[in-house]
Amino acid sequence: MKKIPVIIDCDPGHDDMMALVLAYGSGKLDIRAVTTVAGNNTIANTTQNALNVLHYIGADGIPVAMGYQDPMVRSHKEQMELLAASRKKMRPQAAAPATGITGAAVHGKTGMDGFDFPESNPKTPADLRSVEMMAKVLRESQEPITLIATGPLTNLGFLIRLYPHLLSKIQRISLMGGTSEFVLTRQFMEFNTFVDPEATKIVFESGIPITMYGYDVTYRVLFNQSTIDRLRALGNNTGNMVADLLSYFRSSHNRSLSRLNLGDTAPIHDACAVAGVIDPSVVTDVRKMHVDINVGGSLLDGATVCDYQGALESLPKNVDVVYNMDTERFLTMLVEAAGACK
Ligand code: RIB
Ligand code: CA
Predict the structure, then answer these.
(1) Per CATH, is 4-340 categorized as 3.40.50.300?
(2) Which of 53, 112, 176 to mutate to test the pocket of ligand 1 (most atoms within 8 A of CB)?
């Protein structure tokens, strides 16, 4: 069966790592390029993490193009300070994030703590930067490309602004981001849309078909200890690396968000946006609706305002919002993909 051509834009990140392993190990996707963005950590760290994962699983042939440190308008540092202030304002009694104010509270100081990759990684970033690489792949492709975005949407925002003539080459954007629940149900906005709300607004208003995998689905399809045991039972390097990183992520995520009481389970947010491209039938509940994005530097930055009752009849139903997936099939896809890697 012909592979689906994709570009993966990510900010590794433990769940971005899972997205990359699933995309490569599935054997169903033709990964034309991986591009990086700052989010869970600095652009230097997210890029190095992407290089380490791809080299370790045997995917050296996939180019990695480095993105930029800051979102389109405010700096990454400013946005992280706004995030910390928002958390304090929304839940004054909550403890400050454990470490720093980037995603370090959950992903650790390197952005992907929990596994020591071999020091000697010959893989280096491509000469082209992220947005130029995206444009090159789109320009040269004989067929439309699916963009899979698992971090803040800065690169996609710039692509849409700088290369409008190439947008017809984009089949669909499958993104992890947002939530359709009333956004103040959580201590803060969904991270990816919060970090670069202006880029998110550009993407959601672009007219490109979008499938949105937000917290509504990613906090429903959770992995557990059995998943980790199945990964270890594979007996290969990738299985053990994924098991180590998911174990680390589960403990730091559940410590940082203890009030969710997740027990031995935890989300793998970004892998959801890949699974739905590989096999759309794994998605069991998806609804088309208008989604608007809040911008302007407030504690509601990046809020995905979802018209899930169709009240705003005159506005375009621009997004397919995913509410649920077949968890067992999803987790089996992850384990089988890891088993197909080195
Ligand atoms: O809110 C979850 C998202 O933020 C995931 O993409 C995770 O990797 C972080 O980037
Ligand atoms: Ca991510």
Answers:
(1) no
(2) 176
